[in-house]
Amino acid sequence: MHHYIQDFSKHDGQEVTVKGWVANKRDSKTNIFIVFRDGTGFAQCVVNLDDVGEEQFEQAKRLTQESAVIFNGTIKKDDRQIGGYEVAVSSLEVVSTSEGFPITPKEHGDRFLADRRHLWLRSRRQWAIMRVRNAIIMSIHEFFQTNGFVQMDSPLFTGSACEGTTDLFATDFFGEPAYLAQSGQLYGEAMAMAMGKIYTFGPTFRAEKSRTPRHLAEFWMIEPEMAYYTNEMNMDLIENFTRHVVTTVVEKCKLELETLDRDVSSLESVKSAFPRVSYEDSIKILRGEVEVNGKNAITLQEEDLQAAKDAIVAANAKIAENEKVIKGGVKKGKRNYLQSQIDNLKSDIKVAEEKVRNIPKWIESAKNFPDGEDFGGSDETVLTRVFDAPVLVYNWPTNIKAFYMKEVEGDPTHVKGVDLLAPEGYGEIVGGSERETDIDILLRKIDEHELDEKDFSWYLDLRRYGSVPHSGFGLGLERMVRWICKLDHIRETIPFPRRFGRLFP
Ligand code: 4AD
Ligand code: MG
Q1: 41 CB under 6 A from ligand 1?
Q2: Domain 124-275+389-492 homologous superfamily, CATH
Q3: How many angstroms separate the alpha carbon of residue 428 from the centre of ligand 2?
């Protein structure tokens, strides 16, 4: 039997055996300090010369990063250490040694790390992200399972397009042309007529040749579909669901989010009501023509721009001051401290400089936003900035949305679609709608979207036999992970990302 780091609080003061790997190591004459990881957590193990004897002390000294090792020792509470506990080692057994592990504590480039994703996953940051992902998945199932939804698996080989024909991955299905599923929705609709409320949880594929920080070619989507639901009920569900997932994960993943330096106070915004804005109102807000609670979208960006410029001036002044002190001659400890401050300030400046480069473009795009267009990433950032919670934008222009969305009564130029836009620049994380039930409208739309009616004969049957109002939505799992963890890029949200230009490892 052995013990796991995540259970250390239950074994305070006891003898334990832990099995894992060396994440990091620091030596002194009589002690070796090892940051040890076992998959469930990180903890410091201290090997003392007198405690383990000469031979094992020498073995411990030779341990390299990622060598596999088993320690026996005693757990001691120590709040200063990672995880709050430390192991005083009494004996050790080296399982295997690792030579020249390529990912060291120093900084590495994005491509270098992506090429070594199979090893990068062991780092503390990736460990934290994957655990948050796991908690999100659990909380999603928990929400639906306790609210009367039946989980269904939709097919991944399909004969037709659901979300438009431009980003399909074509493949060959025993000689028949087939596509990898962009969405499970149409099958979800069939299942909802059989089960009432369902949700899919599976991989989806989009051949989008975009290298943006929020697009994957293979991502996991959660798609609930509910019979007898209007789009208003759909929006209530999106709101309750999002609130459940975010609050549960913030509660469960304190350590992980702390490891990621995630300030969770902004995630608390999900506790307040989500503003609901029609598309037409949202573009007026975006252009700065209409204010929200006294806040103007354009003015806010101008203020953010000025704040970024001021931050650069202040940081440069502080750097100059520190450099002057260092030049004047100071003790090593103080010098290191000042130098690390300089390094931090320099990375702050990089962030601020990027804002100074971007915000003027965002303002231009927002001010001149054309009627009836889809939002770009920066438009979502500018729009959500005026709100204090995630925003639901509903009633979208018909011609930028999928064929199956229900027309607004008396206004065929708009459909009952809804997007949930996350704050802090994370943008669309959910897309959904009420579904069209009028078979004639559907036939016309299928034609207008240049889809083949034959492929949809089964789907149209749902409107022939006991058709009812129904709605649903799709959550992009990786978009949710990215927002909750506050990651710059979606590539870190999934163990092995598949995106344009990346199929290895
Ligand atoms: O808005 P989308 O395209 O909607 C659908 O697929 C509908 N069938 C959903 C439904 O009503 N059942 O995609 C839904 C969500 C987006 O809001 C986004 O979070 C995510 O899927 N998504 C992507 N995530 C990562 N990479 C991509 N390329 C994505 N495309 C969409
Ligand atoms: Mg969408």
Answers
A1: no
A2: Bira Bifunctional Protein; Domain 2 (3.30.930.10)
A3: 7
Alpha carbon 327 to chain centroid, angstroms = 43
The answer to whether residues 420 and 392 touch, using CB atoms and an 8 Å cutoff, is: yes
Residue 105: predicted pLDDT: 85
CA-CA distances (angstroms) from residue 390 to 95, 203, 419, 433, 450?
Answer: 49, 25, 10, 17, 34
The reply to whether ligand 1 has any atom less than 6 angstroms from the CB of 478 is yes
Residue from 221, 229, 415, 477 whose mutation best tests the ligand 1 pocket (most atoms within 8 A of CB): 221
The dihedral built from the CA positions of residue 201, 417, 412 and 383, taken in this order, carries a sign that is negative
Distance CA 19, CA 69 (A): 6
CA distance 109 to 191: 46
Distance of alpha carbon 37 from alpha carbon 18, whole angstroms: 9
The tens digit of pLDDT for each residue in 363-373 reads 999 999 999 99
Query: Are the C-beta atoms of 45 and 73 separated by less than 8 Å?
Result: yes
CA of 199 to the centre of ligand 1 (A): 14
Q: How confident is the model over 152-175, as pLDDT tens digits?
A: 999 999 988 878 878 999 999 999
**CA 425, CA 300: separation in Å to the nearest integer?**
14
Cβ of 184 below 6 Å from ligand 1 = no
Between CA 343 and CA 324 the distance in angstroms is 15
Mean of per-residue pLDDT scores for the chain: 96
Residue 452: phi, psi to the nearest 5?
Answer: -90, 120
Q: Is the beta carbon of 476 within 6 A of some atom in ligand 1?
A: yes
- The β-bridge relationship of strands 42-48 and 85-96 is parallel
pLDDT computed for residue 165 by the predictor:
79
Q: Is the pLDDT of residue 438 over 90?
A: yes
Distance 157 CA to ligand 2 centre (A): 21
Tokens of 332: 């090593």
Nearest CA to ligand 1 atom 20: 476
| Distance, CA of 21 to CA of 69 (rounded, Å) | 6
pLDDT in tens, 57-91: 999 999 999 999 999 999 999 988 888 999 999 99
Please give the structure tokens belonging to residue 189. 């609709």
Q: Where are the domains of the chain?
A: 5-96, 124-275+389-492, 281-366
310 CA → ligand 2 middle, Å? 36
Give residue for tokens 């299928």: 446
Q: What percentage of the chain reaches a pLDDT higher than 70?
A: 100
The pLDDT of residue 282 is 98
Pairing of strands 391-397, 276-278: parallel
**Are both 5-96 and 124-275+389-492 of the same fold?**
no
Give the span between the Cα atoms of 179 and 157, in whole angstroms.
6
The reply to whether CATH 2.40.50.140 applies to domain 5-96 is yes
